[in-house]
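Q: What does the assembly look like in three dimensions?
Context provided by user:
Components: two
Sequences:
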Amino acid sequence: MGPTQKADSREHTLGRMLELLETAAARDASLIVFPELAFTTFFPRWYLEDGALYQYSERSMPNPAVQRLFDRARALPVGFYIGYAEQTPDERRYNCSILVDCDGKILGCYRKVHLPGSVEPRGGARYQQLEKRYFAYGDLGFPAFRAGADWRHAIIGMMICNDRRWPEAWRVLGLQGVELVCVGYNSAAYDPNGGATEDAALRTFHSKPVTQATAYMNATWAIAVAKAGDEDGSGLIGGSCIVDPTGRIVAEAETLADEVVVADLDLDLCRQGKDRMFNFAAHRRPEQYSVITERAGIIEPTALSAIATNLSEARR
Amino acid sequence: MGPTQKADSREHTLGRMLELLETAAARDASLIVFPELAFTTFFPRWYLEDGALYQYSERSMPNPAVQRLFDRARALPVGFYIGYAEQTPDERRYNCSILVDCDGKILGCYRKVHLPGSVEPRGGARYQQLEKRYFAYGDLGFPAFRAGADWRHAIIGMMICNDRRWPEAWRVLGLQGVELVCVGYNSAAYDPNGGATEDAALRTFHSKPVTQATAYMNATWAIAVAKAGDEDGSGLIGGSCIVDPTGRIVAEAETLADEVVVADLDLDLCRQGKDRMFNFAAHRRPEQYSVITERAGIIEPTALSAIATNLSEARR
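A: Here is the predicted structure of the complete assembly.
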């Protein structure tokens, strides 16, 4: 999807999504992947009061504002992945995605685990990244779902944006035998506040080997879909792509605008990796991985030596 | 390094390594990375009796057969990473690597965790992959080491070959703040027994995004070094490369023969990733990763549902 401005109406954006849905269905797609927070602009870049957040959030799914998308999808019939801001009855918000099958049933729900940004706004900055403020951490893990015949009984997992840079997310799905991972994203193309860091070319580049290597290492198809282009002066990378289980890009977007990219996913291509090189049961060594679940942050070797010294001193 | 044939003498191979050492030192290298099992041919492709394995194994390090390399390195002075088959006093073997600093001291040792191949030879096959037969699983974890001034006090980790395809190995090093990962490898370019699977181009390709993406996701430099070319009718991929902490290849080998590739490693380039995008303490969510250390193999969603059903039936 191309950009969605703050001033764009919900109705206008939904109209664009319906057009994309029609185009994809006409090209024989049965599963259509929309990006993260697809119904609205990427609002975490703005500092907003609680009340202002309502317009960006969905209190149920489907709901009247999006019903047309669900109805048309079921009529075609196609299913879809879509990301949105979920507002729960107890007033918590999650950065969420769902898989809607070709019968219009919600096959699975995922709530984003790897929230970037900060809780407190950056003083004096025009653009923020306030996902840690607006959203609670996902509490559903990384569930994989067995699809029905319309999607060839694939085992499908979901991620959202930043998750795809965390190999743990891929591996938790890989350990469920995932054959397709759908990821929607809104990734900044550069620092919109003018900081001299990475540029759009480097950031677009990053998105690809991350998706390719982790798809390969888990022997799964991956579909990574951007909301791209300029949203109210803040640039988002494109680079939407479909990656096969050997890590090759088989189709990719060429623009930063609304665009449909289609591929036929042969799930049997997952077997070579899952049965041989990445036969987890034969080759993984979990007893060597304990630090991955024991702590979040870094302890450098010198610090560990210092701890050992302190311990031995404490024992004297 | 180019290939090493079964018939090549130890002396001949060591001579090639000394030449590479001299060339690299003349180009101002201070750390030289040799491949996995660098002193010999990749012998796990052959079915060998225990006695025949002695000629491929090192019972101490250094030892008279390799002393010249250590002496010349210290004189220059340069340090190095090298992989070899370690034979312990109690007759166990490990696929091992060491870091030797510019003073000739062994800074650290690593024993390969992710052993590919099988214990039993494949009947009727000309070429084997018997690492699981010849070697014990590494029992040292994935330790990182703080280097001295010669290597700019870098935190350095080691992997061997297949390890680089396992994101867990990178992450355990990443959680120690690693700034440089050295990997030596011998990776088959195709099935030498003629099976119709992946070809050399695809396998050479695989090695790159794996190294690039995992270096990026751990904000570390990586040096991946092949033993390449045709060893007694079995092809090995090349693709040796030096990757920066944003995942870009900054130097790479162009041949399958002995070749020196040099880069200057600015360790400060690790900071952007470690402090921001991949600030582990701020952004990792270990409570969601437990399955990574709880089991080795895959449990598919349907199997899990079956377990749940079984459990609820058991409770009746």
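Follow-up: Chain A touches chain B through 68 residues (CB under 8 Å).
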